[in-house]
Structures are given as structure tokens and as C-alpha cells.
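ugh ok so i messed up the first submission bc i forgot one of the chains. this is the corrected input, ALL of the components this time, i swear. 832 residues overall. if the numbers dont match what u have on ur side tell me asap before i send this to the collaborators (the ones from the other lab, u know who)
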Amino acid sequence: MSIRTEIIAVGSELLLGQIVNSNAQFLSLELAELGMNVYYHTVVGDNPTRLEQAVKIAKERSNVIIFTGGLGPTKDDLTKETIAKTLGKKLVFDQEALDSIEQYFVQTKRIMSENNKKQALVLEDSFILKNDYGMAPGMALNVDQTIYMLLPGPPSEMKPMFQNYGREYFEKQFGFQEKIISRVLRYFGIGESQLETDIQDIIDEQLNPTVAPLAADGEVTLRLTAKHQDEHVANQLLDELEQKIQSRVGEFFYGYEQTTLPQELKKLLLAKQKTVSAAESLTGGMFSEQITALDGASQLFKGSLVCYTNEMKEQLLNVSKQTLDKNGAVSEECAKEMADQIRKLSNSDIGISFTGVAGPQPLEDKPVGTVFMGISFSGKETQVYRFHFAGSRNGIRVRTVKYGCHYLVKLLSEIE
Amino acid sequence: MSIRTEIIAVGSELLLGQIVNSNAQFLSLELAELGMNVYYHTVVGDNPTRLEQAVKIAKERSNVIIFTGGLGPTKDDLTKETIAKTLGKKLVFDQEALDSIEQYFVQTKRIMSENNKKQALVLEDSFILKNDYGMAPGMALNVDQTIYMLLPGPPSEMKPMFQNYGREYFEKQFGFQEKIISRVLRYFGIGESQLETDIQDIIDEQLNPTVAPLAADGEVTLRLTAKHQDEHVANQLLDELEQKIQSRVGEFFYGYEQTTLPQELKKLLLAKQKTVSAAESLTGGMFSEQITALDGASQLFKGSLVCYTNEMKEQLLNVSKQTLDKNGAVSEECAKEMADQIRKLSNSDIGISFTGVAGPQPLEDKPVGTVFMGISFSGKETQVYRFHFAGSRNGIRVRTVKYGCHYLVKLLSEIE
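and heres the new structure output, hopefully the right one now
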């Protein structure tokens, strides 16, 4: 049987443009991974007549219809009622949902209104999808070879419900024997087109696992997806493919799944018991901000000096007047001194420095995008990297910080 | 005539979940402002049969159908072709669009393929919507009392096309005599529910202009929208309403439209010719990063010290050992010394300091969310503010920086 899926979002706030339909995007990604074709997204308001018509159209053209929204306690929430009417089904109380709603009101010492009880109503004969993050349960039922799945509107409730219960429901309904396992590999320091060129033959020849590249914010990710009845074999397929890819582009690989460069840097600093401090000019505190955004940053980060003026570089960071006069603040020499000085001043193992021209105006006759980055590490010669970035002021700063993390990760990977 | 609008996005990438349908959100907001009802959003893939069916369904239930996407040069781009077929219209070359495409290829010294010419094809008898940011023109036509408008998919092309040409087309078609003018007022330091309570009677009694509150990231905005044939009168209506609102909640107002607290701070620092420096503990550089994100920051910002450890606070910032030992780093005394010291060290007019507990662990027996902020200004007594924020590590840091900007703006507004 060919699966033809339609996602219907119910909510006037979508039609007024107050929110974007991110639920449809999330579900589409999930369904693509399950191998289920999505042919339509529909958005309809909190209006029973138009919703009923939308359900009728969907019944004609789709055999899986997933609804999001309209399961709440107010009178605007009419998804269940409308579908019940369209399918000729009754609404009945789900005792478990009712209990958990009542319990919630006892716990929070609030008074439950009759409206809240309405959330425990479900379509008769439906399979209940538990809501671990809210009150309204989801449900799924198969009527005349068409599957109806009702999910709540708030993404914080809908997403875990689908991932924990909705997927499994479809796997069982359609007898998907195969396990689908994905692995995301993250790369930095290589462009998307270069990475794709380097592994084009692998991408082309792969049917299982598949390889899907994606570029964002100067990083490239590869999503490897394997299907197999045996989860162990699926993982083996991923291992083999990963090895093949890494033998080509492994030097740019930095981590798996949702990790970030600062997170990988944090892991390595903790593992090697090293501390870092930064002297930031063009990045203006962005490196420090990203490091301290992570829990437990105080174990690996002592502090930084944001030295935006030459005066600050000279007086607080002890960069020599001669260097500033002769080479300028945007120079290899200044980057080197900045890295060395911040390491010493803060008594850290590593000092990193960023100086350059974020724009929009050139500085010291150096064009916008010129960046020098110094890395000072006790017992090693201080390294200075030179970059020339294109893009906006913010883009240049973001890329600079990413390269900082990237080279620190490389350095720490190489030491004992 | 009642307007029933449907927005149809064409593109398989939407159904695969690779992108979110932000175009529909944008257009919905614009259409709401024009007073045009949007009843459906539809997403359909690059498939002529399903697109044709979607157009037929839309014709039955809507009298304004706006398409986004599928106007590009590849064989997947089939919106025009499908609509031409459905409406029994021919496609003809638009000479102006053809010229501009040819010119683009001459300028960029690239070779134009026949595919690119396809972008200059338009529906016969249609009104052309110029594409100032890309090659494919948009178009609009009225067939049997139904308006069809075709817009390109890339938001960078679609948005200006609609705002500059699409809106005007609808205004003329529907004879909207009224000008619709919006004004956004931004507030900080007051919760959404408090602000709404303070002006509930104004919100309730207003029909023209209308008032719509929106809360995001700890800020509240009010969108005032006036309609009138005479633009001057519409602006007067907004002025009167704004005055009425500001007399109640004006002390929390900080700016208009898309401005931010750091931008307002920058304006005031420049106007009053003052400089600022920061001593950042829990914020880890976030204040400095936001200030330096703005063009020309070097005129008002000299630098900062990110002092994450007591060692840094004592040795580089000269916070007294006694204060750190007796009161701790998270204390009024420490915040005061930090603000005074950074002002002196950096030779700035204003020093601001942030110290507190961002979490997830408590610090010095102070609970997560405890924040002290010092503001030192030459010739004035140093002020220390104490906060207790709820929320995540990042949420606490973000709110702290916003309050920092907020109080600096207040201070600068009050001085000569």
C-alpha cells in the first residue's frame, strides 16, 4: 500500500501569522525518516465548518491524516469534536488522562474547571498517545483504511509525544520491520561544496545507509541513515560508512549529533585539565560568552579581557606600544602579544586572542574581514592564524569564534 | 464582497521538512493588516497533478489565491505552467524581465541557458510584479472574480515584492480606500500581564486604532494599527492613542519598531558623548558582545573584563580580598567594587558590573537566579540593583544584560 500523508494544523493564530507552522516541518522530517510520503500540509482556523471540509478533502486524497492543535480546554479547541462528527464516532472519557488532569490540579492547588475535564475526552476505539508534558492526550485510530492521528498544538508537548509514541504506532500499523537509525557527523573548516566533491562517489553509490549533507552557519553536517530489521546491523552499516567518509574528510570532523564547537572544546579542556582565557578585540566578548554559556564553565575558564581600544590593549593587556605603533592592532605581532599576555595575566594554560576588522569600515588600511588569531600555550611556540572572511559584521565575528574553538580543539586533541 | 484568501506554497522541500513555511506566516501578517481574511494555508510538492488538484480545491473555496515558489528556472518549477493549464491561459515572454535576466548574465560574465529564459515567462494578461532582488517576476491576474497572485519562493525576493507591489495591487483591486498604518511600541521592565492589566480598558474600547500586545524574551510590544483614508489623520489617531497609553505605562517604554535595548543605549551614549565599560562575571561577556555587535561601537565602548573567578576579580579588577572573603563574589559590595574598578581601569565615564548565579548549581549559598548589578558613573553615587530571576542559565544571563541596558538607558536619559 502506498502511504499518502497529510498534516493538518488547526489554529487561527497560524492564519493570522502570529506563529509559524513549525509542527508541520518537524513531523515532515520525522515521517521522511520513517519512509512515509507527505503530500500536503494544510492549515485551517478554529472554525468547525471549514475544518470539517478540510477533513473531507483530506479523506479523499490521503490515507494518513495527522492533526496538530485544537485539543485544549477552551471552546476554540474543536479538533476532536469535529473529527468525531465527521467519522461518526463518539467522544468518551479516558480515565488515565482524567486522573492525571485531576492530580495536576490537586498538586498545584488550583481549582479544576469543567473545561479542563474536556481535555480527557478521546475518540472511542482510539489508541491513546500519552502526553508526558501536558494535559491533553493524543490519539490515533484507523477507520476505513485511513489513519487519523491527533496531536496537541504546543511543540513542547507534540514533539515528544510523536517521537515516543506516534512513531511506534505507525511502525506497528504499517508493519515497518526495519529499524531506521540516523547518525549526524559535524564538520568545520571545510566548505559544503568541497566536502561534497570529496565524497560525491560515496553519496551517489549509497542506498542504505543514505548520506545527506546540510550546510548552516559555516558548518557542514552529514546525516547518515541506515535501515535494517536488526538494529545491530544498522549500526554496523553506519560504522562502515562513517569510516569510509572519515578516511577522506576526517580532519574536519568535530563531533556527533547536536554538539557544538564550544561543547567539544569544553569536553577536551576538562579531559586534559586545562584552562583558557581570551583577549578579544573584534569578537568583543563573543568567545567568552559562548564558553560561559555552558554549565560548569568555571572549571575551565578564568576570564577574558575585551580590549576594544589600543589604550586597553596597551594599559590593561600590556601589549607593547611599539607593536601597536609599528604593526597596528590588526597584525600578527599584536595577536601574538595579546595571546601571550592574557595567558600570563590570567594564569591560564592557554591564551587565545582575536583581532581584526569586523567592518563596516576598514581599519588601519586593512580591509573588512581581515582577522588575526593567536594561540599561546605554555611550553609551545605561540601560533598566529590569519584569515580573510567575507560577509556581514556579525558573520565575520561568528566565523572568527568558530575558528578559535576549532583550532583549540585541534591543539588539545594533540597534547597528552 | 467578502474576501477569502488561501496561500499555496509550492515546493517538495517543505513537505520533506527541510524548510519551514515562513512565507505563509509573513503573508498572513501582511494580509491581516490589509483586513483580508486568510482561511487556508496549503503546501503541495513539485508535482503537477497534485498542484492542479490543489488549485481546483482552492478555486472552490477561496477568491484570492496566493502562490509562493515554483517560479525558478529548473524543470521542478512548474507553478506558472500548472496555473496556465488550469485557467486555460497562455504563457508569454515579459520583455522587461527577459532584458533584466540577459543583463544579469552579461554583468556576471556567465552564460545564460535556455532554462533561465523560462523565468521571464508570465501568464498572459497578468499584471507584472517586479522582482527587485532576483530574476523571476511575480504576477497577478483576476479570472472570474478570483485573484491569482504568483510570488517567488525565496523570502528575500518574495517579501519585498509583496510589500512594494503586491499590497498595492490588492489595494487597487479591492478599492481599499483606507491607508493602514502601524506603529510598534517596545517596553521593558514590565510583564505582559501587568502591562495588559494597566491598559485593558484602552485595548477593549479601541476599534481604530487597534492595540495588539505581544510578549517575547522578557519584552512586551504593543502594535497600534490605524486605518483612515487620510494618512495624516491615521498618524494623528496613532499619536493620540500612543499618548494615552504612555501616560499609563510610559516609564517602561524604550523605543519604536525593531529597535533593541543595546541600540537605544548606543544612541544615548553617542548623544551624551559617554563611554561605557563592563566587569562581567555571570554574563561572561554577553553585555560586551551585544554592544560590539553594533557598528561604530568603538566610539562608546573601550572594553571589558570578564572575570569569572575570584582570582581574576581580585588580581585584574582590584576587588578587595576582604569583600570577596566577607561578602562573597555574589554580593552588593562586590558588584559595587566591580563597577567602580572597571570604570577607573578603563578610564570610561560609566562602569557596569554583573555578578550572580546563572546555575545550574547554587553559589556561595545563594540560589540560582540571584543577580547583583552595579552602575558606577563619575560624580554620582554608585548604584547596585538586586534581582532574582527564574528560568534557565541562558534566560537568566539574557535578562541580566537587558536590565543592564535598561538601567543605563534610564541613567543616560536623565543626565544633561
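quick check: Residues 98 and 120 of chain B are 5 Å apart (CA to CA). that seems consistent at least. The longest strand of chain B covers residues 179-188.
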